[in-house]
């Protein structure tokens, strides 16, 4: 007997077979298609699919005839200790940024429908904007959320939006306005927009890329312009510094430009 077959767990194998199959299908599959492609009994596939849906690894379409992977595996893959390593790598990069830019900076990742802040570094000055660790930022109306959405595959972006949970105070965005904004962000390679949460603040955000070219994280500085005699770095310079920081943390050069974003 092969070592790989020494300790068999048929039920686990069935579940993993379904997950691995669905991971290759952007539009999902019907139960009949899964049965055919895996060459298994229809009743055992049905039972396993129901358990995967109940545990939120797989989602059933509104019509109930198609199954797709959720982002639960994506979320689990970026929990501790990988998050600890990500934060440890980010801290010195963020420290260098805030010293040069004289602005605060925070790092967010996707988590259960919104952006979770996992690292925050204050600027060197006597004032600035800080985002509390563990804060959840809206996926739709913040610079961090829009960067996270823009730099995903169409299928991944659709799932993220479907999982989005409305945050208190969130400003609704019409679908066409959101699509146009995400398309522009993707073409630019960054985001720089007036904050929808506070006057006088510009959210400047850059993606941190995973090996597959999608955004695994986002660096954001809530830029505040000095109006006294101190010559602080202007927003164009701050953007350049933030892009450099994001590139240092990225594991790839990111995707190529995309003309339109669908969601």
From TrEMBL:
It comes from the Bacteria. It holds the Pfam family IclR_C. Keywords: DNA-binding, Transcription, Transcription regulation. Signal peptide: none annotated. InterPro entries: GAF-like_dom_sf, HTH_MetabolicPath_Reg, Tscrpt_reg_IclR_C, Tscrpt_reg_IclR_N, WH-like_DNA-bd_sf, WH_DNA-bd_sf. The keyword DNA-binding applies. This is Transcriptional regulator KdgR. It comes from Pararobbsia alpina.
